[in-house]
Design brief:
Chain lengths: 297, 446
Amino acid sequence: MELFLARLFDGLSSGATYAVIAVALVLIYKATTLINFAQGELAMLGSFFAYILAIEQGIPLYLAIVLAMLLSAVLAAGMERVLIRPFDPADHLPLVIITLGLFLVINAVAGMIWGFDPRSFPRMFPEGDVWSMGIARLRWYTVGTMATVLILLVLLTLLLKKTKVGLAFRAVSSNLESSGLVGVRAGPTLQFGWMLATAVGTLAGALFVADPFRQLDPTWAQRVLIFAAAAAVLGGLDSLWGALAGGIILGLVESMVVGYVDWIPNQMGLAAAVVTIIIVLLIRPNGLFGSKAVERV
Amino acid sequence: MSEPRHITEGTTAHKVYRWVPWAIFAFVALSAPFWAVHTPAFSIGESTLTFSLGNLNHAVAYMVGVLGLGILVGYNGQISLGNSFFMGIGGYLTATLVTDDGWSYLATLLVVLPVCFIVGMLVGLPALRIKGLYLALTTLGLAAVFPSIVRMEQLRDRTGGANGKRIESDLDAPDWVPLDTMSDVLSGIPLVGEWAFGEGGVSGREADAIWVYFLLAVLTIAAFWVARNLIYSRPGRSIIAIRDNETGAAVNGVNVPMTKTLTFGFSAMLGGLSGTMYAMAIGFVAPDVFGINLAIFLIVGLVVGGVGTLSGAVIGGIVIVFVPVWAAQIQSVPGVPERFLRGPTGTFFLGVLLIILTFFLPGGIVYGVRKIRARFVQVVPDREVAGGDEIVVAAGDATGGKMSRHGGGSALEVDEDVLDPDGTEHGAAPDAVPASAQQPNQGEPT
């Protein structure tokens, strides 16, 4: 029982962080039907922004994270304008290639500037446990991360459902051409989508490395990108709440599979994520909560 | 700009135009190891860039990997990022068979090629339903998983775990290969011979490295030859038809699922061959060699060389090996802090290259070369031989003056890009490279 609870809590805490990056992927996918392969690296970059602002500039951590989110949103606005917008959104290969190029560049730039030595990120939540039973510890970190994800999703839902810019965003993601006909400017709206996604990614990055068991270095996001993508696919690529569900399920699968099946080594959680992606895409391509895609020939 | 020169097909001028580039390419390919074995160095500012035979062999091995990816992505239109996975299988199978079971390198291909072909087909099966971006995502996951698989405790005996595996076998140059004589001949070339190729004669170690180069070169030529024949044969037309219009291909009788799966298998097989060649070239395999970065580097090689060309893979292989090597050798750049230069500058340059080419030269270097060449020389058909009115002349064909000849009614099917008068406007996207760019182009070393 203790062991089960321990693994449950582990799964919840990593699942919640996968969910936040998955939310970032979903935001971009909703806007442009593009999977942003650079999303993980953007989150990594954002976590470094927060770290630098908090540690080297001495800004209070929460403020530093908000500033880092704004900073990365500005960066994303520029990127979208210069690198993404010139391409036809319906033609996937060039866009995939551009995001892969960004993946390499961001990863390399972070490595060049900050090096590969692991750093420890300041604690976002109090140390210690909310509740514990033997080795099963429900840490403040887990609770804090879950709470942050829920608040984030509620805010995003409100933003998309209740505000004018959210309406424009939904119009563009529902039908690019028709939204243009009724006067929605697609370019700035998609740009807004990129900014929003990258800011969310930065928050996700900060949450991820704020776990006392993890450290900050330029490579942490490579693995996480696959998990986040698996979470997004599982939840349905265009569903925000689906991303949360996908993330949690995936985190639980990872901790349970690795924990209970003896012959599966630790690193194979990643394989579980990839197998999840394949199975979901084969059996239920729209994920658990995604809207059905209709392909006309 | 002056009028391009017209060369009539079948004349001596046309033969020269066709075969001289090949001859130059053959000479360069043959003499390169004798040059590289002395590790020539070039100084740029305070930095010294080297061109070593080890790196050249590495590049030759990657050419085949890029070729395999190019057939899948460039010709079949399946966006796969997972070919590093198959390279890893090839590399590790060869490593373990050579070291643990005492096989010879080339014999391991008897296992590597079928295994990779079958695994590739198995990966290709879900790819029938998983398309486009989703396929890219799935295969990227596959690439990311490979290092964890070979690090598994259960496989440690075979794979060497996280430390990688050194291959305990030496490829020794046999006596019957006249490497010494070749070296002497090359250094006997007037004026430049001794400067480029040294005094002539090669030591034992040098001879072994040169021997590996020639083995790799033979495998590479075989791979390109098979790939070329595949692409220009009936199955190749099916492969391309699926890329251009899957429904249309199916309507015209192409067995789409079968063709796609087999293409995946073939691509994976070339990946496996490339992995074996990597093992031959480097003599060491490690988990992170075949990770997510290699998967993306292969895409860089493909895009830089030219999506939808075979010859681009030669350039691609060279670029993805030498750009990181040279980037790491750059010691100082004015205005850039030195600690930046100690970071992963190679990855940085490859990423920048990828983005820049996608913007400014989406067809890659091969395409750029063809465009420039078409400004100066155009091949026109011999009207008397071909019979007058059934000929469509590609007036400004950017594929390097390759003409299109259509008999009878099929003249109507000419790709409009072929008729494009100035030959400069082509699809903005790499996968929109017009079909004419994929035509055989014998003037180009493929």
